[in-house]
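Note to self: keep these together.
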Amino acid sequence: LHLALLGFMGVMMVYAMRSSLSFSIVCMVNSTVNGTLIWPKSVQGSVLSAFFWGYTFSQIISGYLASLYGAKLVLGASMLFASLLTLISPFAALKSVYLFLGIRALLGFFQGSTFPAFHTLWSVWAPPLERSLLTGINYAGGQLGNVLVMPLSGFLCKYGFAGGWPSIYYILGFGGLMWCFLWFYFASDTPSRNRRITGEERKYIEESLKETLIKNSSQKYLIKSVMKISSTKFKFKIPWHEICTSVPVWATIIGHFAGDWGSYMMVTSLPLFMNDVFGFDLFSLGFLSAIPYIAYFASINIGGIVCDKLRSAEILSTIATRRLAMCLGLGCQAIFLILSGYCGCNQETLVVVFLTLSIGMSGLQYAGFVVNYLDIAPNFAGTLLGIGNTLSCLAGSLCPLLVGWLTPNGTKEEWQLVFWITGAILIIGTLIFSIFAKGNIQQWLEKFQLITIDKNR
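Structure:
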């Protein structure tokens, strides 16, 4: 649990750094009285999508590097560089929009390791019946990051030091450096290397992983590979052909893409939507934009607990649990998001309610596709998540550009079209996942081989 809480804080900082621009751009550009930068809508769209240009290229390789060198090193190093880039972001923005684009792309590159590396970590730390809970706690930090950074940004834009909005980046950068210290001191790659858990806890984790593999495989080396937990003297030969031709893998990736499209659309565009259509002032905008993510944070954790209970009590099978989480999460997100686009100027309370239900319910997806990578291929969960994140980065890149293109005037009708497109993607992705995804370890996993590494070479 201490590792999940440490991961929680790390993901919180990652999301705060990532999402800070979505809000701070409202007070950075000259669309407001105090804006200092002259960036038209098209440039703003490019700036918001630049993060995902770099985010795309580190996904697959980071999962592999985490398996090879350990998730502790990969996560710690990536946060260190991300923090330094965040600290120099105000200078870059004031100097040149192109320099700022480059900084955001590099930030995305280093933060791209977060989810694949954490999934690699949980593949040897999380007992199967606690996966939804532990990964839910870990990744829920992202939503707390969104919750905190929005009102914080609103306050700092108006009252912050160094000219207002630059103080957002300075505070987040130093916060990331502090987390790096805690991570390198307390974290460990495997239970066998951790001095802060008891022998009983270590045995429970290792035996639970072992039992799951015994039920799904007759290959002793498969058990040994997950029980590698105390050794780093080998690496995996990744079965690329089996991965690329696996229907359940692609079903999970498509569900992943749909979920990320909805998430990226909201995190990059929610402040713009509320500012364009309802004209909230910066201070109110920060607090109102945070409300949906409080619900999101709660649903991730509650959903993880409920789904684990449904599985452990054998009320639902693994795949039935994943399907339920996806249908409730993304289905409700689509419905309430579309409804929010039809709220009028005098219905501010109603739009906040709809957006809270939309974003809040979508948190259930973390008990769906996110955990499903661990269900179908625990040994390659980091690599598979890296592939899924790589393809889903297309969503992160396209969403801000699509919004900039479809909402040149920021009218309600323009935003309605944006939300209908998003709703359609959410529903289609959920249907494909529900039909084709699986909840058991795939047979092709037995074909992989272990390659010994000579440390003296």
